Amino acid sequence: MARVPCLLALCLGLVSACSVASGSRKVQIDRPGLPLADATAEELDRFKQGDALFEATLRESDGLGPLYIRDACAACHAQDGRGPGVVTKVVARQADASLATKLLPLGPTVRPYLTAGAKVPLLAPSDPRLQTTARLPPAVFGRGYLEAVADKEIQRLSEQAARRTGSARGRLHRLASGAIGRFGIKARLATLHDFSADALNGDMGITSPSRPDEPAGPEALRDDRKPGVDFTEPQVELLRDYVRLLEIPQRKLPSQNGLARFEAAECGVCHVPALDTDTAYPIQALAGISAEIYTDLLLHDMGEALADGLREENAGPRDFRTAPLIGLRFLPSFLHDGRAKTVEQAILAHDMPDSEARDSARKFRALPEHERAELVKFVEAL
Predict the structure, then answer these.
(1) CB atoms near residue 358 (< 10 Å)
(2) pLDDT band at 256; cut points 50, 70, 90
(3) Are residues 120 and 213 in the same domain?
């Protein structure tokens, strides 16, 4: 379903059909891409403007390139979900940081498309010591809820995890800036402003005040057809606010049996059903509520089978932030590289001897077949 420029008018007409559920707001319309039910008129206006930027195909005159992966936010997040855009990373087959630095002096990200005078793309080197790995972009709906979670909640869960028995542990990702990371598959970004500016720069070569340099390329081109910074700070903030204001799609949960199976398999140890948000969060509709995001926002060691060979700040190749269980029925595949085509496949991929999630995955395996189906149906409905 393609979104149209007059989305605001459609949303305003739908607000009366929305309701508030026990401290956590979810639009009662079963599709992604709608704004928060309790957004103000000013926020809805910013949502409309940010939506237009999100959908826009960028060109040389906007600062696209010289190298890029996709030319629009929506090309990686169609209907605010994941895909069809995929980021290709190149990593050393052996965990050898010095080898990766030597073989990949321009970094691990493939940027295959050219514009603004570039003639040489940044592709994966042909070397048997290297391998490529895919990264699917995250869905963006409901991400304002993640940003709104109070730091003290994440700290509490990290402290709780350190005292836990069993295989599951978990730790918060403290970034070099001192902030707690919560966005990206390894929680390398702390805010939705960082997320927006980073995606503009890394995926499209769009510079902004916080990311003023073009990504490195084989021709060392330092600018494009739009000299200087490409996007202004207000433009980045519009994209940030658009993502902040995207609602969690309506959840039509099946019977309580599914929730009981979810609890029996201890899925909620890491996919924590709800976290409290900061009362000072700038979007009032998300301030001081219980956010039903089904994640602890912590890093977990998922074992060698899921490792992607990449290190990001203090997160290693086997470390991944717990994925929020939001709108899974709108996602084409699961796990960081999309290898799981069903929820059940994703759960079973957690069952490795060196994975923190092995205890929970084995509890899932031990359930009778009909109870496993009830758990899967519950997760699919989130």
Answers:
(1) 18
(2) confident
(3) yes
